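quick one before i forget lol
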Amino acid sequence: MNVNAPSETATPISRGRREVRLLGLLRAAALIAVVAGAGGSLGLMLYAGRRTPRFLLFLFVIWVLSPFVAILGTSRHSKRWPAVTRAAFYWSAIIVSLGSLAVYGGIIDLKPAGSANAFLYVAVPPASLVFMVIVVGVAALMSRRVAGA
């Protein structure tokens, strides 16, 4: 038996520590992705709206950053959630961050033909929030069902 190799039967304590460590890494990756996604989304929106009136641009800044602010705010309260729900939340935060950058950057083209350029900046924030609510809600229901069984 190799001393450096993991044992065949991991104890519940070692599994718990590994789970906490993995959730910590996932949380850190999600927070980095959210900050990068917010900064990139803001930059792309400001570039796209460079000829937009200042007041309207200010409103768009608030709107585009709202999912990222919601993620950061929710992240503070997620520490008490079950591990499955937290993992779903962190993964969905990463997906929302990368997806926003892909849509705003034109990598994923979701704009209907003939629509205004602002369409994406209006539609993506609420779609992101709805996506996260569904993913985290399903994970929370699954974790309750597993805990109750």
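fyi The first helix runs from residue 12 to 48.
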